Amino acid sequence: xxxxxxxxxxxxxxxxxxxxxxxxxxxxxxxxxxxxxxxxxxxxxxxxxxxxxxxxxxxxxxxxxxxxxxxxxxxxxxxxxxxxxxxxxxxxxxxxxxxxxxxxxxxxxxxxxxxxxxxxxxxxxxxxxxxxxxxxxxxxxxxxxxxxxxxxxxxxxxxxxxxxxxxxxxxxxxxxxxxxxxxxxxxxxxxxxxxxxxxxxxxxxxxxxxxxxxxxxxxxxxxxxxxxxxxxxxxxxxxxxxxxxxxxxxxxxxxxxxxxxxxxxxxxxxxxxxxxxxxxxxxxxxxxxxxxxxxxxxxxxxxxxxxxxxxxxxxxxxxxxxxxxxxxxxxxxxxxxxxxxxxxxxxxxxxxxxxxxxxxxxxxxxxxxxxxxxxxxxxxxxxxxxxxxxxxxxxxxxxxxxxxxxxxxxxxxxxxxxxxxxxxxxxxxxxxxxxxxxxxxxxxxxxxxxxxxxxxxxxxxxxxxxxxxxxxxxxxxxxxxxxxxxxxxxxxxxxxxxxxxxxxxxxxxxxxxxxxxxxxxxxxxxxxxxxxxxxxxxxxxxxxxxxxxxxxxxxxxxxxxxxx
Length: 564
Description:
Elements: E1 4-6, E2 9-12, H1 33-40, E3 44-48, E4 53-55, E5 64-67, E6 71-76, E7 85-90, E8 94-96, H2 100-103, E9 110-115, E10 117-122, H3 124-133, H4 135-152, E11 161-166, H5 170-181, E12 187-191, H6 193-196, H7 200-203, E13 214-217, E14 220-222, H8 227-234, E15 248-251, H9 255-266, E16 271-274, H10 281-284, H11 301-314, E17 318-320, E18 325-331, E19 335-340, E20 345-348, E21 351-353, E22 357-359, H12 367-371, E23 375-376, H13 381-387, E24 392-395, H14 399-410, E25 415-418, H15 430-438, E26 442-445, E27 450-454, E28 461-464, E29 468-471, E30 474-477, E31 481-483, E32 530-532, H16 544-563
Helix pairs in contact: 3-4, 9-11, 9-16, 14-15
């Protein structure tokens, strides 16, 4: 295939051979004699010869390889348009593997023997047991796997998962958000409208505009790619083991769900975490969280969620996304079935619902048109790249809107903040309201509404009822959300759909509990062993710190319920 360059990025053609990575002490730690013996004691020895592969690209389940003697090179296999690349070479008393060992991802690199010797295969189950029982070795291995993942992002390994799409496509943005939140090594090639004028670039690959976005997985193109299709190909979709029953299924991967999963797994519960999109929820879409305990200078939602996901993997949480729960049913007195959108079932002893809420939209003409090219529900570096330096409108009067306005303004975008209420301080923290009032880059419009959108293929202007049309290349909508509870029609909910828990459960449902000899526990819903936490729960505080507290506290009630 001929080389094609779009926006300075090679889409096809051969690349130059990269120099092997010199791994630093974090990526390739020096193990003590005692640590080495504990590691290999968990594995199975195997003699290997030159040319043997200890794991290969595409292996759905591969092992951590502890190298006792000999040498192994880690490589990115040849792709249809470029040759293989040696990533690094590993010798005695090292181990080959990366973060995919913990999250279930299939191998995207290969490991080939270059000097004969002996290795020890540590299966994923054995690795999980070792990490659970050996805190010291767990920290060493986890640091190494995480550092390797970070190192692979900027190198040739990123070409094993590549996305091709347009800068104005919400489908392309969804793919990138999915890969970034799941911490996948990948590369994204974004085509601008000007570059799309030369469709010969797509013709080289025999693609049309209708085929975009395209995901190249190990060089094989997947047209009209979605996060779900990519997850299936990468081995990240839920696969039940025969007659498997888990202790806890957490539905929703925001702060409440991640906290619940981490506390559950760390306390010995076999735990599955599901999210319909990607872990993080609305917190991951927050550019800066300044009032979270322990971060005096603030922390981005992406960084906070990224570390939480790594922590979840450390404790053995099985994270699946996109994986949408669509139903919940009771199977006998002690078991529940969580139904997934693809028809699969997860049988569990308990469930915590942390499904959060869906973003509300303005009822305006052409809203759906511009959702693909100018309307956003988050303000993170992903969205910033689409609008940086260009005028934008932010709609909303709560903290998320204020944080987004300051973040966008700080990166060069003139901002119109549209607030329906009369006073900015009514729903927004005072420190944010004061900062917005003092920022000359943000123009605040109170008692105002967005009443129209305009533009050709992309958003060009927004009409505000109190000032008329303003230039805008992006509209960031933070007007609240509706609880994602429609898949739980049998649970006791309030008029707005938020789930009642604990003492808030309606009297008419308490007869369900008489046979159990108890009332609903804190965070327990009207259905025994089904709990709710975070934004989806009636009465929750709708703050990141509160959601984390609720998720972890719900696990305490899970333990009590399972003990009955």
